[in-house]
């Protein structure tokens, strides 16, 4: 249960960062919430490896297979656990637990550990490991380290850089081959992966940014009447419709996006609450059912992004309602 809740909290922190003025995320909340990420990035078990065993030599404890990202139940949760801590320290430079957090981050993000992570991705059995959800979070971590302008961050970013290069190359290679978009509400949703990767690539990797723009237009430019009322699926933590719209807002000129949006989600801007309702969670001890809290947070993320861009207060208000429901139901209010 603790691991499940910690993953949800990492998402809620992410939303609060995006929301900025829409939700108050102050140092008091940061001090309460940081320990979920802090405690899990070196908590090895329980663990869901997610890779392919090539032979008996693959049977090693997680800390040996993934010495940088072995905690937080699975690889991608460990990566965004590191992102959470970096982001908190960047936002609150005088954070009370700064030194302890930095010590943990530096212990994991060594060049030796990162090179070991690369060995796993280069192994013939696991070349697609964490595609593309974990890849996107890895690029987010790199982005956060680059923007946290401290000597410690610079060193950790340089250590991480070889893996970032591997992941960015894999991303381009995969998009070039992916003829049809992946539209589901879980990890492999390609709009989510492309959206996160684009945030990073637009600043640091023009080739990947160009590929994402090209494929997004190829996949989604002719879409219309996305069936929002079909959402959510029972295990969803992403909204296929909202993730797509959020991505297209990033890659299209404003006027073109506004025109596309009216075809893609007709009526949504006028009354978004008519089309989506807050997802209710029946059992938060079940990790899959608890995904729906993640859906509320990720929906809030998209609604804040789109509401900001479209100057739409109704989207922002609906985002706040989604956020508050899962925030309070998980005992954080």
From TrEMBL:
Which Pfam families does the record match to this protein?
DUF2891 (PF11199)
Tell me the keywords, alphabetical order.
Answer: Signal
Signal peptide: which range, if any?
A: 1-21
Does Signal appear among the keywords?
yes
Protein name stated in the entry = DUF2891 domain-containing protein
């Amino acid at each position: 249960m603790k691991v499940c809740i910690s993953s949800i909290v990492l998402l809620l922190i992410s939303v609060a960062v995006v929301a900025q003025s829409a939700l108050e995320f102050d140092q008091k909340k940061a001090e309460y919430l940081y320990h979920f990420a802090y405690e899990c990035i070196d908590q090895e078990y329980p663990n869901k490896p997610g890779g392919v065993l090539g032979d008996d030599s693959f049977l090693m404890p997680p800390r040996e297979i993934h010495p940088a990202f072995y905690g937080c139940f699975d690889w991608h949760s460990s990566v965004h656990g590191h992102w959470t801590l970096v982001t908190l320290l960047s936002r609150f430079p005088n954070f009370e637990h700064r030194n302890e957090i930095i010590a943990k981050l530096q212990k994991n993000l060594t060049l030796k550990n990162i090179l070991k992570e690369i060995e796993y991705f280069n192994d013939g059995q696991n070349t697609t490991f964490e595609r593309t959800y974990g890849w996107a979070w890895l690029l987010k971590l790199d982005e956060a380290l680059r923007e946290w302008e401290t000597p410690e961050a610079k060193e950790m970013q340089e250590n991480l850089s070889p893996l970032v290069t591997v992941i960015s190359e894999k991303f381009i290679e995969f998009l070039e081959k992916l003829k049809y978009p992946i539209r589901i509400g879980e990890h492999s949703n390609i709009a989510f992966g492309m959206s996160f990767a684009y945030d990073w690539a637009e600043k640091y990797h023009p080739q990947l940014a160009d590929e994402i723009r090209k494929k997004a237009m190829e996949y989604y430019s002719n879409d219309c009447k996305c069936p929002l009322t079909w959402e959510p699926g029972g295990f969803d933590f992403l909204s296929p419709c909202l993730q797509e719209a959020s991505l297209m807002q990033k890659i299209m000129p404003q006027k073109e996006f506004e025109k596309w949006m009216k075809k893609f989600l007709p009526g949504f801007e006028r009354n978004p609450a008519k089309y989506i309702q807050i997802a209710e969670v029946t059992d938060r001890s079940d990790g899959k059912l608890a995904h729906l809290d993640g859906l509320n947070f990720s929906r809030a993320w998209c609604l804040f992004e789109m509401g900001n861009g479209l100057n739409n207060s109704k989207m922002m208000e609906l985002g706040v309602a989604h956020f508050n429901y899962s925030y309070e139901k998980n005992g954080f209010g």
